[in-house]
Amino acid sequence: MTDQLSADRPRARRKERGGGRPASEEKILAAAKELFLADGYDGVNLERIAERAGVSRQTVYNRFGSKETVFREMVRHHWSAFVGPDRPLAECDTEASAEDVLRGFAQSLQRFADETDQIRFARLVVSESGRLPWIADEFYRLGKGPITAAFADCLGGLVRSGRLRCPDPHLAARQFMGLVQEFLVWPRVMAFEDEAADQPSAQVVVEEAVLTFLARYSPAPDGPARPA
Asked: I need a surface site. Which of 82, 95, 102, 144 has the fewest CB within 10 A?
């Protein structure tokens, strides 16, 4: 497996340039994503990525160095769509009610699944990670892991302000994500057509997840919650 320093090299170069990706990198990553989702990891090489992006193979190599690094950066780029100016985790609003924070986060999970290639991406990870465990590791490290940690920190802020009573925010964060994703994500990832067709609406799933979570973690009625 490529050394992690090599995998992080493009990010370091972007820092030196002062931030966002050049347009050519965006084109390369978009092309790579189309190809990897269609043909899997082994079905793609730098030549095909270059051809789809309309650049030379040397340009792809100069920007990223290897197919593995392209894949890692494509995963990073994919997950970057989750958090933005209109996403609750860009700045967790600890002045909002626990109900509003939970609903906003659940709606972000729904939106990400509906508006990106998250379902196809998750299928790719499931199919490839048996042979290439680092793919699942990167998918978690660059996406679900940081998102879960940020949501847990948000829940921790609600605990400290007395709006939740939650001894383990990280456990609670995973529980809430499960309440949402079990209905809105995993039946689609696994292509359970009958189950997916028989699901309640997304709005019902979100509202029931919020109510279930609050039934367990709302503050005691006789006073504010105390951090565990």
From this structure: 95
